[in-house]
Specification:
Blueprint: E1 8-9, H1 11-28, E2 37-38, E3 44-45, E4 51-55, E5 58-64, E6 78-84, H2 89-93, H3 95-98, E7 99-102, E8 108-117, E9 123-124, H4 140-156, E10 163-168, H5 172-176, H6 181-184, E11 186-187, E12 198-199, H7 204-220, E13 225-229, H8 232-242, E14 249-251, H9 256-265, E15 270-276, H10 277-280, H11 298-308, H12 313-320, H13 325-334, H14 338-357, E16 362-369, E17 373-377, H15 381-392
Parallel strand pairs: 8-10, 13-14, 13-15, 15-16
Antiparallel strand pairs: 1-12, 2-3, 4-5, 5-6, 6-10, 7-8, 9-11, 16-17
């Protein structure tokens, strides 16, 4: 029996743990013996502090990133956070770049926390990313994780903010050279990403085995309809927009083509694929593995759809210069061309998926963007979603 691969913890989880330890030591004068936080996924993380630096008015704590069995470039990388009570003037002047004052649900935090990147953390230089231009490339969820842990330490010790947390990745600038960050407009280091705080191992064979087993379980129950999503974002979209039961969908990561093959082999009659436009747009070019190392021609495919829809050359050039598909959607929306381009892409996506399945299964598709919700869907997607919801008991 294949041994289950070990998952790990994201750079954001490491930073959140360091933030708690540094804030606790700053406010209490004592070093933590046992460090523990809970990730957004609900899993406890208990790292060992590798270094604690105490200076006047500030404390910096470091851990090493535990990536589990994932062959990640940041595996075993040192991650640190420096916490102080002195807020630099430039941060007070530009709170939109630094201040985190509410949690992910919009509730006010008990203290204001200003967050920035230090050595090895990239800086955003182009619009269209998770953070605004000028901000450190620390995404929304990790920022809230860091702020939450600082508030937890301050509340425990009955101390008052505000606080300043600076994330430090000593090896970040070197590692970032092998990533897509420079192309995306993130300069000087790495991004701090993640939505769950957990790094899932990316062994291709193990992932495909897991997908197959999960789909086989649905088939064994006599189900003839299967709902697939690339990841957590697709599941969240189904839940928040349609009230769909998450347990009834199968997360397939980047393996769209293989998952379609499995659905055919297992005898499913209908398949609903739901995913973010940044993933699914690649299917319009027949790219059935959506990982960026396989191919990244998202904007080129959107521009090709634009050509078919008669967009002017100036708009096409602007489209190709966008950093993300979300930014491209915003541009198309401003020009009143978003529906036409999305419907064009959906036709190509449907064509390539049906070609892959050789007509042996009915395939319907829905794609979305965070700012716009559902962008396009195939003709039978709504009916199939209703069948999936009924199956999931929603």
């Amino acid at each position: 029996m294949r041994e289950r691969l070990k998952s790990g913890f994201t750079t954001g989880s490491c930073a959140a743990a360091c933030a708690y330890a540094a804030c606790y030591t700053l406010l209490s004068g004592r070093r933590l013996k046992d460090l523990s936080i809970v990730t957004p996924a609900g899993r406890e993380y208990r790292p060992k502090l590798t270094k604690v630096l105490v200076e006047k008015g500030a404390v910096t704590c470091f851990v090493r990133k535990e990536s589990g069995d994932d062959p990640d470039a940041t595996r075993d990388m040192p991650v640190g956070v420096r916490v102080s009570r002195r807020i630099p003037d430039q941060m007070l002047a530009r709170p939109e770049l630094f201040l985190t004052s509410h949690d992910l649900e919009g509730q006010a935090l008990s203290h204001e926390v200003y967050i920035d990147g230090g050595k090895g953390v990239g800086r955003v230089t182009r619009a269209g990313l998770d953070q605004p231009v000028g901000a450190a490339a620390i995404n929304r969820v990790p920022r809230h994780m860091i702020a939450r842990e600082i508030c937890r330490a301050a509340d425990l010790l009955d101390e008052q903010g505000p606080f300043f947390a600076q994330v430090i990745l000593p090896e970040g600038e070197r590692i970032a050279r092998s990533t897509f960050n420079p192309r995306l407009g993130i300069v000087g280091g790495l991004s701090v990403l993640g939505t769950t705080g957990i790094v899932e191992p990316m062994s291709e064979k193990a992932l495909l085995d897991t997908i197959y087993v999960e789909m086989k379980q649905h088939a064994a129950l006599g189900e003839k309809v299967i709902c697939l999503t690339p990841g957590n974002y697709g599941r969240d979209f189904l839940r928040t927009s349609y009230g769909y039961d998450l347990d009834a969908s199968v997360k397939i990561s980047n393996y769209v083509g293989e998952s379609v093959d499995m659905a055919v082999d297992l005898g499913f009659e209908k398949l609903l694929l739901t995913g973010h436009i940044g993933k699914l747009v690649k299917l319009a070019g027949g790219i059935m593995n959506t990982h960026s190392r396989m191919a990244d021609c998202r904007l080129e495919l959107m521009a090709a759809a634009g050509i078919r829809q008669g967009l002017e050359e100036k708009l096409l050039r602007e489209l190709l210069n966008c950093v993300t598909t979300e930014a491209a959607c915003e541009l198309l929306q401003q020009e009143g061309k978003l529906p036409a381009v999305m419907n064009d892409l959906m036709e190509r996506i449907s064509y390539h998926l049906n070609r892959r399945a050789d007509g042996k299964i009915q395939i319907e598709v829905m794609t979305y963007a965070d700012a716009y919700g559902c962008l396009a869907r195939t003709k039978g997607a709504d009916a199939l979603l209703k069948a999936c919801r009924k199956k999931g008991g929603s």
